[in-house]
């Protein structure tokens, strides 16, 4: 038997897109919740290596000190006098986070110590200086 088209029938088929849109939103929410964001200081430093270097997993506040003595936090160059205020602000956002100072191998020692002192004055309980692990360890 053949099916004959009458003048009232149209040949178009409609697809309901609502379940597809719902699935896309669910996937979007899933990937947003499960993703981890990496914080960066904004500059690349050549860290010294140390045999006792340990991985710091809960580093929430990263401070970089370049070889020329510049201080970077959250991809912004800051004045040494503003380190304490910036660390206090970042600690208010994440009170449990540790402070890690990424000092370049050629960074002036006085600037690194000043940053370390300012981080301690800001109330950070855990302040450490980053180093690379010795190769082959």
The gist of it:
The chain is α/β, with parallel strands linked by helices and 137 residues long. It has three helices and seven strands.
Report on this structure.
The protein is 30% helix and 19% strand. It has 137 residues and is α/β, with parallel strands linked by helices. The protein has a 5-stranded mixed β-sheet, with helices on one face. Strand 5, helix 3 and strand 6 (127-129) form a beta-alpha-beta unit.
Task: Walk me through the topology.
Layout: H1 18-34, E1 49-50, E2 59-65, E3 71-73, E4 76-78, H2 83-93, E5 98-103, H3 109-121, E6 127-129, E7 132-133
Parallel strand pairs: 1-7, 2-5, 5-6
Antiparallel strand pairs: 2-3, 3-4
Helix pairs in contact: 2-3
N-C termini distance: 80 Å
Q: What integer value in Å does the Rg equal? A: 27 Å
Number of helices: 3
Task: Tell me the CATH architecture of one domain.
Answer: 2-Layer Sandwich
Give the CATH class of one domain.
Answer: Alpha Beta
Key words describing this protein structure:
137 residues; alpha/beta; five-stranded mixed sheet
């Amino acid at each position: 038997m053949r099916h004959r088209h009458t003048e009232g029938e149209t040949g178009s088929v409609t697809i309901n897109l609502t379940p597809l849109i719902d699935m896309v939103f669910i996937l979007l929410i899933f990937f947003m919740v499960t993703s981890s964001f990496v914080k960066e200081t904004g500059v690349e430093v050549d860290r010294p290596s140390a045999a006792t270097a340990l991985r710091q997993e809960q580093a929430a506040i990263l401070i970089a000190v370049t070889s020329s003595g510049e201080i970077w936090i959250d991809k912004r160059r800051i004045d040494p006098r503003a380190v304490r205020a910036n660390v206090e602000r970042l600690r208010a956002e994440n009170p449990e986070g540790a402070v890690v100072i990424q000092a370049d191998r050629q960074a002036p020692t006085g600037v690194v110590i000043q940053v370390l002192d300012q981080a301690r004055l800001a109330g950070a309980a855990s302040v450490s200086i980053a180093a690379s692990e010795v190769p082959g360890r």
